[in-house]
Fold each of these.
Amino acid sequence: MSPAPSARVFVARHSLVVRLTHWTNVAALLVLLLSGLQIFNAHPALYWGDVSVFDRPWVAMFAAERGETAVGLTKIGPWTFETTGVLGFSDNQVRGFPAWATLPGYRSLADGRRWHFFFAWLFVLNGLVYWSAALVGGHLRRDLLPRRGELSPRHLAAEAAAHARLRFAKGEAALGYNTLQKLAYLAVIAGLLPLMVLTGLSMSPGVNAGLPWLPELFGGRQSARTIHFLSAGLIVLFVVVHLLMVAAAGPANSLRAMITGKFAVTPGDAS
Amino acid sequence: MNRRRWLTGAAAGALGAMLTACNRLTANAGVQQTLARAEGLTRRAQRLVVDRKALAQEFAAAEISRDFRANGSISPGDPDYRALVESGFADWRLVIDGLVERPMALSLAQLRSQPARTQITRHDCVEGWSAIGKWSGARLGPLLDKAGLKPQARYIVFHCADTLDPNVSPALGRYYESIDLIDAYHPQTILAYDMNDAPLAVKHGAPLRLRVERQLGYKHAKYLMRLEAVADLAGIGGGQGGFWEDRGYEWYAGI
């Protein structure tokens, strides 16, 4: 007997490897971000090129005296903003990012580095598992690479318009990724995440000796540090949009699918 | 309005609780030990990928930084060191002892006549900044051969003249560092007496500092007084192999 037209059925949505690596990545990226900001706070300034020209950072967070009180200031290029309480000066301390954004909350470069490098290994190994499975198991080809026609301007424009109105695929059409989703995920897994590893390794003096072309690829060690920081920011931006999209498209169903693998579909639901 | 205030309060409370939990986790000895395991993995992986003799990148004279920052001690107040500065380091001697066949004490003039190397390299501070400088000094490898390392020797410990932390006993407050024999015999590992073609300034470690180019800045011990060949780092300082290592930093500072 087939179920009644309105009955929900559960369909396999995400493979076990995708689910495990997804949540491992959530944990790893969270720790890497917070401990990364702790490390950044040891010298809250960014430069381009091989070296730090100390009076010419392109980004800097610092504190200054204004009358009796200290203010936090953030310089980006030619502009300086007052960012007291968040950047430059918070909790009565001179510090780049505030305590709530760093791991640990107190100032400790040594502890921040321990967290960062342990989870960097976890992140890299997790990425290798994911990529091997995606290449061998067909996840990349089947689910992520855009199909013929999906990259046409007309198709992309239609999808962008649907996204803007927060209209998402329903029913069986929601079992696959839409093109914008595919492109966003590909940009992260094939672009930003590997870029974090490469720019991170570019800052290692040990790796530099073996692979001197690596930091040069990014324009020098300090440029690599800058790009490491910027692409971390882009990953945060991706996560924010990703969470908003999950919330808009049906958080319970999406979350269940990423935990148990099962996605609820109501047959006959129009897309 | 009340609901919003309640939600904000709850979010702030949850965040506060998480912060406290993270700090407690960080302070936990078991967590620290687990996290510190990554260091061994990093060292082995780098030694696997990077050739023992692979040279750190060298730069052109035009790229030398004009604002090379000095970190750690920049003007040691230790009376013995002050006296050496006053006398222009005339009485200073570098002692090489420990597990060696022929302990030595070398003056600056004697050091300057040893096999030397000049290199323009990038100094990477653990804080994140970099600066390029030109260094000239005696190569450590040939000096160790001259002293004759005993077979049990596994590390070279660098004892320094500066007290960086005056609030603890001298054994813990005095700066020191250590490297293994792979780095000690690396061609770019030198005991530098000149920086940018001039004798080392006090803030950069006069009269002699270590350059171990494939590791971070804190390994490059300044104000060198004594090199000791040892089999084990346990008995020295806090036992972790260096001033900053005793305070939670990695002994292998290749990353």
Note: Chain B touches chain A through 50 residues (CB under 8 Å).
Amino acid sequence: MIPTTTNSSGLTRRGFAVGAGAAGLLATAAGDFARAQGGPLKVGVLLPRSGAQAGIGQDCQRGVELAPAIFKELGLPELAIMNADTETNVEVARARAEKLISDGAQLLVGAFDSGQTTAIAQVAEQKGIPFVINIAAAPQITEQGYKFVFRNFPTAAMILSDAFANQKELFEATGVAPKSVVFMHVNDTFGTSMQQGINAVLPRFSMPYQIVEQIAYDPTARDLSVEVAKAKATGAQALLLVSRLNDAILITRELVKQRWSPMAVLSMGPGWYEDQYLKTLGKLSDGPMSFVPWYDPHKRLSKQLEAALAKAYPGINMNTNHVFTFEALLVAADAYKRARSSDPKALADAIRTTNITDNVSIGPGIQFNDKGQNDKLKNAAIQNRGGKLLTIAPKEASNAKPELPMSAYDRRG
Amino acid sequence: MAAEIYLNVAVSGLLTGLVYGLMAVGLSVIFGVVRVVNFAHGEMMTIAMYLAIVLFNGFGLDPLIMVVPLAAVLFALGYAMQAGIINPFITRPEHSQFILLVAMALIIANVLLIVFGPDARSVQTPYSFDSFLVGPLIIDATKAYAGAATVVITAALFGFFRFAPLGKAIRACADNYTGALVVGLNVKRLYALTFGLGAACVGAAGSMLVLLVDVTPALGPALTLLAFIIVITGGLGSMPGAVLGGVLIGLTEAMAGLFFTPSAKSMFSFALLVLVLLFRPQGILGKRPS
């Protein structure tokens, strides 16, 4: 037997080799451990932070900013947020998604708009990176058989079904209902999906009103005077709308200028409940009802999120943008915690089995069907009153009674 | 549909078209004399709109009162741009001028983005929601004020070019560059003055347009494109043509929205442009190249 060489400290060559091997194994294991549980999950958040939808994109960002502190309290893992601006442009959204993935994003969240979201979904599916949609309603996004795309937001058909059910509830509660409406909608992916959905869904609800005219318009239009004049000329009693923020402000201005106060403004999209809408128009922002995916004010996490928003952004009302962006990140953090890995496939599998009941939005919680769609979400009806957003339906989630008809614009002082 | 709606929409289109016309007059004046196409036109307009917002929010100064001061500020900016940056490019190929002005447009848009952020901004004056009831007509007060101011400014500009010695000198430069040099006119200074005057039109138009349209840093290219459609329809280099083009585009968009679908408003203004290019390539009031 060849004696091993021993140095003065007693370390043998064999001992050194064993030690080095053990250290190597430990280092490898530590690396795996870090990848599996340690470092924060890199989440690319794509939002329209500039362009026509900038106001809403930046509002969604508030939901992102509030998430870390609440996740810490919930015992969820840390997320490393990588922000990207889609510039309210479908092609830019696609390019930014590709860039985020090449920069190391392990999961994507976004992108408020159906057109941009569709483009990102294609990229995510192609690259095999999980994509959790915060807001986008075009049904086709989760009808493509995608394996990496998940949506915790209702489809156009779900929004419309709930909207008509809630409208009937409100008409019955107040004893007031319009007999005729004009349907004005943006002509983008979301608006067109909603328009097609209305034609399919409306006959099932035997609503008290008839749609006397449908007016499609460009969401980036600088002037909507013609559209409002055309709507007014129909003599309809109320407005049914699918709009965005800037056009909602333009339409309200034109309603006032053209001296037309409809009995009701019934919105089935964003715009009319945004803080920028309330602040820009003051008293003139009172009255519109929005039938939208919303938060349940009675839920524990809703109260926590609302308190965090009030602390971070005093004077800002909590809305769809904050809630669903926050929940998209909640889905990501929850999946990362359960997957114990940032491997895209493991993350996607974990998201598929999501079952979050301690959430914010109305409904039993966050679960996804085999298409990646949360089909259990419920909408609410909210009304702007005195700069606040009050939930007026469904009854079980409401915190105020509806006011219908809304007060005339020329009698608001 | 009742007859008054056609009248209401026509008047609204006419008034909006007048403001568009003033913006396009600036582009037309610059091209007519300096022979440079200002691809930063819309971005210069957004500068004026943001200045109007700053003055309104900071000091409560009504944009309509600020029309002349803002025109003066933009005049200075235009003069400096021409004298300092554009003049060396006058004799260079058109693609060099194009690249220069597109670069300036990008710089302006991005500086505005850094300073003001991407949010849409607007001003809300006490008369923002007012309208006049004239028989069956409901006339938007803001558009009426802006339209009237446009008529006054355009008339003053016509008068300047027709009767003032300086205006005549500028027209001389436009008519015969070599002749102007021979008779001893300081052409470079006159070019800078012309660019300044074009920019002043943009300043005045921007001050009024901010009452009608929300501004974002990304608005510039849309305004540049609109100004191009108007001046090509009316006749590149023709001031009356620019006003006429503005009114025609304003009316076309309004009536197309009423008779067909509002989604197709821009399609109809482009269709008008195509028709003009097909049957009168020099524009409605443009001169046929000799």
Note: Chain A touches chain B at residues 49-52, 54-55, 58, 87, 187, 215-218, 220-227, 229-230, 232-233, 246, 249-250, 253, 256-259, 276, 280, 284 (CB under 8 Å).
